Amino acid sequence: MYQPYPGGDQTPPVPSRPAPPRPVRNAVMLMYIGAALSAVSLVVVVVSFHSIETVIRKASTTTLTQAQVHNLAVAAVVIAAVESLIAIGLWLLMAWANKAGKSWGRIVATALFGLNTVLLLLSFARATASISLAFSVLVWLVGLGAIVLLWRKESSQYFTAVSPRP
């Protein structure tokens, strides 16, 4: 049987990447749930367009024309839709990065969770619908669960083993 010379044209085998531990897999699942909740938020905002118009009309201290109310409602829906699409993209990007063991993914996910915490606290200070606030708290809790799982000992060992060393 012919065996090629060890220094020949064969490439050395690539070391296998360890599978993500359970806490990382669960954190990734929570991130997928966060993306799904953001998608639900997008649908709810678009479907509730007429309710948004009514809220704007009732909250107006000055007399707005029907066209102005409509334009404000359109702007509110577009802004909320863009926010939801960005949130979906970030949830999915963080899920991919953390599942792949990218150490930057865990750091960015933590920073985004901190930003979400600040935005949640600000939403308590402004007038928002109670269902919207409850939904924001639910999304925050999903993020909290993911962050706690990402910083567990097993997760840290995984990120250390998988991430390239400088």
Structure, described:
The protein is mostly helical. It has one domain (23-162). The protein is built from six helices and no strands. The mean pLDDT is 88.
Quote the distance from N terminus to C terminus: 42 Å
Structural class based on helices, strands and sheet pairing: mainly alpha
Helix content: over 70%
Rounded Rg: 23 Å
Largest sheet: none
Total helix count?
6
What is the arithmetic mean of pLDDT? 88
Low-confidence stretches: none
List the SSEs and their pairings.
Elements: H1 22-47, H2 49-59, H3 66-99, H4 103-125, H5 130-150, H6 153-162
Helix pairs in contact: 1-3, 1-5, 2-3, 3-4, 4-5
Provide key terms for this protein.
166 residues, mainly alpha, 6 helices
Question: Would you summarize the structure shown here?
Answer:
By secondary structure, the chain is mainly α. It contains six helices and no strands.
